[in-house]
Amino acid sequence: MKPLPLGVRVAAGLAVTALEQARKLPRQLAGLPLTVVSEAMQLSMRVQQHVTELAIKGDDVLSGLRPAEEEPEWATFDEDETSVTTAPVTVEAPADDPWEEEERAIAEMPEFLPSYDELSIAQLRARLRNLGVAQLEELLRYEQAHESRPEFVGMLNRRIATVKAQS
What we know:
By secondary structure, the chain is mostly helical. It folds into 2 domains: about 1-65; about 105-165, no CATH class. Helices cover about 60% and strands about 0% of the residues. It has 5 helices and no strands. It has helices at about 5-60, 100-110, 120-130, 135-145, 150-165. This is DUF8129 domain-containing protein. It comes from Lentzea xinjiangensis. Pfam families: DUF8129.
């Protein structure tokens, strides 16, 4: 038996598919409002994400054009609260002491930003606006000597260049 032409076979498959979909329609109509609402919410969330991404990019570009804003007196942050610190006790450690390297790393941590290692890149970006060139360069040296994360090094280099250009 000779096969039917492709167009006839496709048309027959289309007719069967349409019939199957028509039979499913009553069940699909019950869930249609929920599907529409769900898709509308997904679209809304995607739009919000795009708007937020554009705002972040805009902030990055515009931050170099305007001076850093001073923090209001009423704004307090956990990092701003004064904590009781004691002077580190220096003990002569033997050369094979496993804790020596960690103690040296802690001692090297920038005093003006003691929580530096725990900061995300966004948290660090927010704090950079209040730092001078010397502090930024100290952070850059610390980052390069320890974790040397490319995104942190790049951001610090860009901020140093921006602050120097503004001076």
